[in-house]
From TrEMBL:
EC number: 3.6.1.22
Entry keywords, A to Z: Hydrolase, Magnesium, Metal-binding, NAD
Name of the protein this chain belongs to: NAD(+) diphosphatase
UniProt xrefs under Gene3D superfamilies: 3.90.79.20, Nucleoside Triphosphate Pyrophosphohydrolase
Alphabetized PANTHER family for the sequence: NAD(P)H PYROPHOSPHATASE NUDT13, MITOCHONDRIAL (PTHR11383:SF3), NUCLEOSIDE DIPHOSPHATE-LINKED MOIETY X MOTIF 13 (PTHR11383)
InterPro entries in the record: NADH_PPase-like_N, NudC-like_C, NUDIX_hydrolase-like_dom_sf, NUDIX_hydrolase_CS, NUDIX_hydrolase_dom, Znr_NADH_PPase
Organism: Achromobacter anxifer
The UniProt record lists the keyword ATP-binding: no
Names of required cofactors: Mg(2+)
GO MF, any single term: hydrolase activity
Length: 256
């Protein structure tokens, strides 16, 4: 099974979304050595690669946005695709040592690019990010972000900064984005989010104090939603945000 990426698009058979086999990879000029294994176990059949942005899909195939394949590929294939994308991105961005510029060598026993000249080791990047759903009585706080093209509302989220714990990130991001203070942080769940290399770690929290004051360059709108309010469009079930919100819906709400 081969995962061929063009930027954040995956090459699949146009009608069935089947992944290309080794013969098709050879047909489009991908040598076996260019395909990176996505597991360190010997004999694993899964390989991944990034191709040049200008490459066209062969006849009968198409490059499709990885996000668009949620619900098209089964859960196992989608999880493999996410892993494959992160490995391919790691290989694409580590063609040279970041210290001395020498081409590194990939170790066979772990995901590590090691420089033969200076010994510097580079591992696949994982960027942790927190997500938090704030509860206030029977209401929850949902926000619409300025950087998204949809009108969908979701929980607050933000990346962990150097020196922070996840909990410290929650307190900082909540205060920066909506001006509130929260407490009683409770872990909910996590999800690999390969766009391109995040790990989303979700929590619930209880409102403590403050009035909503949005950070305008990050948040287009934020408000409390509770019983009797019209339900906004929310994050889909495929994301941890969708699970988090649906697990804490106000009384009387239901969501597909």
């Amino acid at each position: 099974m081969n995962f061929v990426f063009r930027r954040d698009e995956l090459l699949v058979e146009e009608e069935s979304s089947v992944l290309p086999d080794t013969a098709l990879c050879a047909q489009i000029g991908l040598a076996p050595a260019a395909l990176q294994p996505i597991w360190t176990l010997p004999g694993s059949p899964y390989r991944t690669v990034h191709v040049e942005p200008g490459m066209d899909a062969p006849k009968g195939y198409a490059f499709k946005k990885l996000r668009s394949l949620f619900g098209v590929l089964d859960d196992e294939s989608m999880a493999l695709a996410g892993r494959a994308y992160q490995i391919a991105e790691w290989a694409r961005t580590h063609k040279f040592c970041g210290v001395c510029g020498t081409p590194p060598e990939r170790l066979q026993t772990e995901f590590c690019m090691r420089c033969p000249q200076c010994g510097f080791s580079a591992y696949p990047r994982i960027s942790p990010a927190m997500m938090v759903l704030i509860r206030k009585g029977d209401s929850i706080l949902l926000a619409r972000h300025t950087t998204t093209a949809t009108s969908r509302y979701t929980a607050l989220a933000g990346f962990v900064e150097p020196g922070e714990s996840i909990e410290q990130t929650i307190h900082r991001e909540v205060h920066e984005e909506v001006g509130l203070k929260v407490g009683n942080l409770q872990y909910f769940g996590s999800q690999s989010w390969p766009f391109p290399h995040s790990l989303m770690v979700a929590f619930t929290a209880d409102y403590v104090s403050g009035e909503i004051r949005v950070q305008e360059d990050e948040i287009a709108d934020a408000r409390w939603f509770g019983p009797g309010d019209a339900m906004p469009e929310i994050a889909p079930r495929i994301s941890v945000a969708g699970w988090l919100i649906r697990a804490n819906l106000p009384m009387g709400w239901s969501a597909p």
